[in-house]
Amino acid sequence: MKTLKKVDTHAHVFSLPKTLVEGARYRPDADALLDDYLAHLDQHGMDYGVLVQPSFLGFDNEQMLAAIARHPKRLKGIAVLPLDTDTSTLVALASQGIVGARLNLFGKPLPDFKLPVWQRFLAVLGDQGWQLELHCPPAYLRVLLPALHDYAGPVVIDHFGRPDPEKGTNDEDYQTVLDLLNPVMHWIKVSGYYRLGAGERGCHHAQQAYRRLVEKGMGHRLVWGSDWPHTQHGDQVNYDASVRFLDSLVSDATTRMQIMGENALNLFNFAP
């Protein structure tokens, strides 16, 4: 019987930049090198990895592209792109292993997707079938998800949908997001549990969010990511802890394998 392969759908690799993008919310304190990441994948039996452009590098995706170029069959990427990106640029990036674009909206104003510049950007991405990855608070998601109703590609939501650390999953905004989820077009990364609150609070909120997501019929749309190197939280968590938390979050081995395997393979089109 063929063993299903596993995917880590969310990690970052970078060398410390000399300068940060304007408006960067933090400065990393250590390199996150590709060889170290690959060692984690190997140690935990991960066949594939997805690299996500970190916010502090802005539109300069070169480090991620260089990493993918070293292992193009094992790695894919999610880029950060300017709104005037054209189709030829997307085609070129796709040939280098990029499959989606990320909008990290923490610390930024809520975008108006009705504006022509956004309509054009979303149309260009959607026409190529690219993923649109959203990293933002629930108050943003409740506005953006309806505005993306006609988006032509998958919509991927980072880190459980980022329920508020103080309010948790009972927050009105998060409850609205849960009601808006569509298992035909939306995907959720069960990753970065420590971003949902300090210590046990983050674990509790992640557990509550997981249960709510399953209740909403999103079980086959959940994917796992290590969030390595756990930027801003590297002193609290490591790759081993991220894997252990998934084991505790999803106690059933078959379901856990579906999240790490089948679901992720389907979303990212890795070879099974």
Commentary on this structure:
It is built from 9 helices and 8 strands. With 272 residues, it is α/β, with parallel strands linked by helices. Helix 5 runs parallel beside helix 6. The radius of gyration is 17 Å and the shape is globular. The protein starts with 6 loop residues before the first strand and ends with a helix. The model has no long low-confidence stretch (mean pLDDT 95).
Topology:
Elements: E1 7-11, H1 34-43, E2 48-52, H2 62-70, E3 75-79, H3 87-94, E4 98-104, H4 116-127, E5 131-135, H5 138-147, E6 155-157, H6 172-180, E7 186-190, H7 200-215, E8 222-224, H8 239-249, H9 253-268
Parallel strand pairs: 1-2, 2-3, 3-4, 4-5, 5-6, 6-7, 7-8
Summarize the structure.
By secondary structure, this protein is α/β, with parallel strands linked by helices. It is built from nine helices and eight strands. Strands 1-2-3-4-5-6-7-8 form an eight-stranded parallel sheet.
> Uncertain segments of ≥5 residues (pLDDT<50)?
none
Cα-atom Rg, whole angstroms? 17 Å
Shape: globular
Structural category:
alpha/beta
- End-to-end separation in angstroms reads 13 Å
Helix content: 25-40%
Number of strands: 8
H/E element string?
EHEHEHEHEHEHEHEHH
In percent, how much strand structure appears in the residues? 5-15%
Q: How many distinct helices?
A: 9
Fill in the keyword field for this structure:
single chain; 272 residues; alpha/beta; eight-stranded parallel β-sheet; 9 helices; 37% helix
